[in-house]
Structure formats: C-alpha cells, structure tokens
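QA checklist item 7 of 12: single-chain prediction sanity check.
[x] sequence parsed
[x] length recorded as 268
[x] structure emitted
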Amino acid sequence: MSFKPLLPDAGTAETPYMTLLIRGFGGPTVAFEFGGHTFLTDPTFDPPGSYPMGDRVLTKTAPASGTAEEAGPVDVVLLSHDEHPDNFDHAGRKLSATVPLVLTTTAAASRLGPPARGLAAWESVTLPGGDTTVTVTGVPAQHGPADLEHITGPVTGFVLEGKGLPTVYVSGDNASLDVVREIAARFPAIDVAVLFGGAARTPLVGPVNLTLSATEMAEATHILGASTVVPAHVDSWAHFTEGVAEVRAAFAAAGLADRLREPSPAAR
C-alpha cells in the first residue's frame, strides 16, 4: 500500500527529520510507517452492521476504506483494548493473529495470547530490526469518567520514539484531559498526536463522553504542544455524537487548523 507524507522530509532545527507516512481506514484504524516498521492502530475491517457487545449492540454505519489485506504487511498492531467491536472486530482479530507483535493492555494480552504483549502504564518495549531503534511506551487512557472503568474496561495509549524521528502519541479511547496532561508531563516533546475522538456515548452510561470531544481534541493539542494532529475514530459508528466536521470547526475556532492533518483514505 502507499502512504501519504504527513510531515516534510526535513524539518527545522526544533523538529529535525520529521517524516511520517500515514493512511486511514476509517474508525480507529490508521497505518503508518515509523523507523522502518509498519504500525496499525485498533484494526477494524468488518462491514457495516450491528455488532453485539454483551447485552448491547454497536452499529457500524460505513465500510472501511480498505481491506485487512491492504493494510499489510503489518509489523506491529497498537491495540488500545480488545473488548469493544468498534476497536477490534472479527477481521481485526484475524489479522492480529498473523502479525509479529500486538501491543495492548495486560488484560487484553492475557485474553488474546501470543503474539499479544501487554504493556502496563509507562512500561516500554524496544522493537528489533527496522531502520533505527524504536521504543514504544504504554501510557494511560481513560475510557470515560474515572468511575466507569469497571464498565468500559482498561485501555492503553502509546508513545513512539526513535532517534531522528518525530515523537508520536496514539491516544486510544481516552476521554480525560487530565490523562493528557500526565502524558505531556512525561513526554514534553510530542510532535504528532493521533487523537481518538467522536465524543462517543452509549445509553448504558448516560450523557457522558467516552472519548474526547472535538473541543477537547483541540485542548489536548495545546496541552501536548503537538505540531501535527491526526484525527481518528470520528466516523463509521452510530454511537459517535461528533464527526470530522466538528473536529475541523473546533480546530479552526482554536486557531489550530494548520495543525490538523486528516489521513488519506487507504486506496483499494
């Protein structure tokens, strides 16, 4: 598959060698090349329809912009959590069983088994091979208000680092700006933030957001100091209350429109 250059090949003295190549598949699924590795976030490739989740149903409203086969070959899946079909569906599970490494929560890794490896908060792993040494650190994520984790389950985000590469933050399904502040304190030089948004809501928990709203995505950009933000998880599911139009408007209102980079749809 081909990738869209997201950042210039040569940056300023403050952001040297900032190159990131990225494709979007819809929902939370983006692929990008980093340090000679191809990463894929929360793989979802199933067709539109109703997907049971316990005694509830989530409704997918649009197909992925490419197939699981077109995402590969994938070296690492960054899986924020495994319990919700809008983040990890049947096709995503099938694909993830074939890749060399799946990084996820410790709870998900225990359920999935190899090649899944769990990362606790602030735990890092160094990837073998590639063009340079790449370190992936698991970072906190809060899938809604703090008192709902027993319902929503544990979630992780990720920070990727490598010499001469932009530092990349992948939020996963996070709804807490306090969590973003905690990550910014640990990683004060985030260059690219892949932020999951959509202001997701479900009747089970009432009128509270389970992911960032568009306005909160813009505020997270300020907190992180990110020069580039890639919006993800802002389409294709009925329980999202906001879409990419709201993200564009919020970033424009915050004077951050120049930092927003929407991933190109993966070409079939």
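[x] summary fact logged: The first strand starts at residue 4 and ends at 5.
[ ] second reviewer sign-off
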